[in-house]
Amino acid sequence: MPRKKKAPLMHIPLIPLRGLMVFPHMVLHFDVGRARSVAALEQAMMEDQQVFLVAQQDGEVEEPAFTDLCQVGTIALIKQVLNLPGDTIRVLVEGVRRAQLLAITQEDPYWIAEVTVPEQEAQQSPEMEAMVRTTHELFEEYARASMRVSGETLRSVGEVDRPDQLADIIAANVLTRVEDRQAILEKIDVEKRLETLCQILIRETELAGIEKQVQSRLKKQIDKNQKDYYLREQIKAIQEELGDKDETYVEDLRKKVADTPMNDEAREKANKELDRLSRMAPGTPEIAISRTYVEWILDLPWGVYTTDNLDLKRARRVLDEDHYAMEKVKERVIEHLAVRRMKEMNTQDGTMKGPILCFVGPPGVGKTSIVKGIAKAMGRKFVQMSLGGVRDEAEIRGHRRTYVGAIPGRIIAGMKQAGTMNPVFLFDEIDKMSHDFRGDPASAMLEVLDGEQNFAFRDHYMELPFDLSRVMFITTANTMDTIPGPLLDRMEIIEVPSYTEEEKLHIAKKHLLPKETREHGLPPKSVRMSDAAMKKLIEGYTREAGVRTLDRTLARIVRKAAVDMLEKSVGTVSVTPQVVEKYLGAPRFLRESPEKAPRVGVVNGLAYTAVGGETLAVECATMQGTGQVQLTGQLGDVMKESAHAALSWVRAHADEFSLNSEFHKSLDIHIHVPEGAVPKDGPSAGVTMATALVSALTGRMVRQDVAMTGEITLRGRVLPIGGVKEKLLAAYRAGIKTILLPRENKKDLEDVPEHVLKEFEIILTDTIDDVLRVALLPE
How far apart are the C-alpha atoms of 683 and 608, rounded to whole Å? Predict the structure, then answer.
């Protein structure tokens, strides 16, 4: 007789199940929400995608121990994982084989079970064949008696001949009691499993026969329609006898539907759902689904509008109270209010579509907070939705009601939250949306942000038109590069530039310092900072486009001042530049001043970065070699191409500079752009590189009180660039007096503060010859 093999041991992630179980050969999906279960699922996906599924004895236990779990479960293979809203994961699994739970070897961060997998092969014998036939006969008898087994299930079971699969398939598809299903699962021996199943089928067949007799007797007593009518009349009579005049819940909903000024399609769908609801038997699971749907329809702000405050002076005052600068944004809001006011004065209908604006600018410049100020100035409700990281279309449009736990999307939820049809709706960080196999939320936004379509926006859950045309949609973004073109086309772009140091000084004195003093519990004006101290703080300890770091740094100073006030028993603290350095240590950022004396091969360029403008010293050196060109300083592809275009222009005009036409074969050229650790890209350094090349090759010195910017072409034309305001402010800080600017950028000088422009001699250039004529000293 062969020796019986010892069952192998396995250590495998465990997920406890509540109210359901998985059999071998069974495909099932379920939702995972507990943190340990989610962690176990993630671990299984990283390994062999196998997980141990075992039922809890008590489904109410949130964190089950070993004694709360059944002793036999199923090793299953994970087929699919789907993330749902609300930190829930839907998993599709296929049962593989039974396993017996021996111990739980780990509980945090997820359960690991030690299981044994016994042999489960059924030995073929006449007794086993007879047991299979008996099981088939009893199952068919149960199907005829209960009338609950579908024809498809009946055919599927009839095709199964393997004893080990037969019991599992019948138990998985037919048995409803958890105790019966667990009893079948715990039978390792196939013959005993079939015996247990036969006993259960005999019992269920008898119960089905009794149920059929009861149903037949009830059907003879009263017809279903008459019964419904009779019961309703009884309820009315009882209510009249008790003096209870309150209507039923469904009738109450009907009255609300009739009183709500919704559109015809919404009213029709609500009444149709209420008709279904009134016909459902008590305890039906779909009652909650239908009731929730109707309540969502009624909760929407149909026909509710706030009255816009069209006082332009008040709007300007409100916007200026909390935000300094940002003139383009403020002017656009004032324009909208002015148009609304004119329309009310000159036409019968004062309504108009809400604008769809996009504020684009670096982080920390106040894009999100100014939107709240706009809502306050207009007297509208404010709703915010952050789009950073959103990658599921259902976040925008909602889930279809065919899914369990479906809810409307964030648009409809936001309108319900606002309580009006014309709020200010902010989509924050619209440039940071992503997409995957669940859909593209940016494409779903096309309908929302299209004034010609959003008057009849359809959410997948609601499936009825809802008017969004009166909503003032505002989006914010740090860059337009990642926003899809069709979406960008639907929005009015308003650029919010970085703050100048003068603007930061004003913001810090008027807003940030009083705010931090108040939030840290200090008396008003107890911390005083001189302008010199504030400038030292801005220039030496922060380098950003916005004011977030400045706000945090001011908070540090206020905390240090609070310590001094308590230790020295003083009521106020005056912060000077020396005190700033004492509180914060040595400055973190130092601005390198341009050289004073003219140099060969060194040219001052101007660059635009995410934190504002910077001066950029482009260095060029030549040496005897074989004609190699080296470009260093972490330059991007566009900047490298600009360098090659500049070199090609110099080679093409070598005769004009008395250069040997073969110089590119005998000289190595090295162009370096400090600082080497900072990545740089863009075409605006083209003229700077060309000037540096001509200077290095001819030996002519370059004026160091001149800075330049512009893109160069092979014909020597100077093309316009961006970031003019920020670049001129950088030159202003560096003490440079002469600026060479492309002529087509003349229009951008309007954005530069007047006191900054007065400090410059701005020379507009058309070609590189214009640049060289000013920048290079005579030979």
Answer: 11
- Three-state SS at 129: helix
SS3 642: helix
Task: List, in sequence order, every beta strand (DSSP E) within 711-760.
Answer: 711-712, 718-719, 738-742
For residue 620, what are the β-bridge partners? 671
The mean per-residue pLDDT over the stretch 684-705 comes to: 92
Paired with 427 in beta bridges are 385, 475
Looking at residue 350, what is its pLDDT? 59
How far apart are the C-alpha atoms of 654 and 657, rounded to whole Å? 5
Considering 290, 469, 684, 695, which one is annotated as catalytic? 684
The DSSP H or E segment spanning 480 is: none
Residue in the structure block whose two tokens are 């300890």:
541
Helix intervals (H) in 545-666: 548-568, 577-584, 637-652, 663-666
CA distance 137 to 157: 11
At CA 479, angle to CA 478 and CA 483, rounded to 5?
A: 115
Dihedral sign of CA atoms 692, 696, 699, 704 in order = positive
CA 652 to centroid of chain Cα atoms: 51
What does residue 141 show for φ and ψ, rounded to 5 degrees?
A: -65, -40
Q: Are 422 and 470 in contact, with CB atoms under 8 Å apart?
A: yes
- Determine whether 727 is an active site residue: yes
Cβ within 8 Å of residue 9, ≥6 positions away: 102, 114, 115, 116
CA-CA distance, 103 to 403, in Å (whole number)?
37
Q: What's the sign of the alpha-carbon dihedral 173, 176, 182, 186? A: negative
Which pLDDT band holds residue 372 (cuts at 50, 70, 90)? Answer: very high
* Average per-residue pLDDT for the chain: 85
Q: Which of 330, 535, 560, 727 is catalytic?
A: 727
560 is catalytic: no
The strand pairing partners of 616, in sequence order, are 605
**What is the model's pTM?**
0.61
- Identify the CA nearest to 73 among candidates 96, 89, 45, 91: 96
118 vs 718, which has greater pLDDT? Answer: 718
- What does DSSP assign to residue 490? T
Give the Cα-Cα-Cα angle 501, 506, 512 (nearest 5 degrees): 105
Cβ atoms of residues 686 and 742 within 8 Å: no
Contact 464, 297 (CB under 8 A): yes
For the ranges 184-188, 531-535, 669-673, which has the lowest average pLDDT? 184-188
Q: What is the per-residue pLDDT for 769? A: 93
Structural contact between residues 298 and 256, judged by C-beta atoms closer than 8 angstroms: yes
Residue 396's nearest CA partner among 453, 438, 452 is 438
Query: Left, alpha or beta for 750 (phi > 0: left; psi -120 to 50: alpha)?
Result: alpha
Q: Is 293 exposed, middle or buried (0-12, 13-18, 19+ CB in 10 A)?
A: buried
